[in-house]
Amino acid sequence: MDLNNLNEIQIKTLYDSRVYDIKERGEEHYVYNLNGDVVMLKDANIWHNNGKYIKPLSSEELYCVIC
After folding, report:
1. Is residue 62 part of a domain?
2. How far apart are CA 23 and CA 45, in angstroms?
3. Do the domain assignments include residue 66?
4. Which of 11, 25, 36, 59 is least crowded, fewest Cβ atoms below 10 Å from its Cβ?
5. In a structure prediction context, what are the per-residue pLDDT tens digits for the chain, which is 67 residues long?
6. How far apart are CA 3 and CA 51, in angstroms?
7. N- to C-terminal Cα distance for the chain?
8. What is the pTM for the complete model shown?
């Protein structure tokens, strides 16, 4: 993660957003990393767009059993 162009507040917000994402989906939730590899969320690179956290795409599909 390139933090060179981010200020301290943006870095803290990114960190807090990742912590919330891990609490929400679980640290062992499998996601696609930046290079396309499937990794656990806790091991994934932190993505951002101008300091705004981007959730890595889940590699786990949920199917609707009611539909």
Report:
1. no
2. 16
3. no
4. 36
5. 566 789 999 999 999 999 999 999 999 999 999 999 999 999 999 999 988 999 999 997 765 566 5
6. 8
7. 39
8. 0.81
Q: Which amino acid is present at 14?
A: L
Domain count for the chain, please give it: 1
How far apart (Å, rounded) are the C-alpha atoms in residues 47 and 32? 11
Residue 24 corresponds to which tokens in the numbers above?
């929400």
Which letter, b or e, does each residue of 37-51 get, where b requires 16 or more Cβ atoms within 10 Å of its Cβ? eebebeebebbbeee
Radius of gyration over every alpha carbon of the chain, rounded to an integer in angstroms: 13
CB 38 within 8 A of CB 31: yes
List helix spans (H) across 1-67.
Answer: 8-25
Give the structural domain span for 27: 8-54
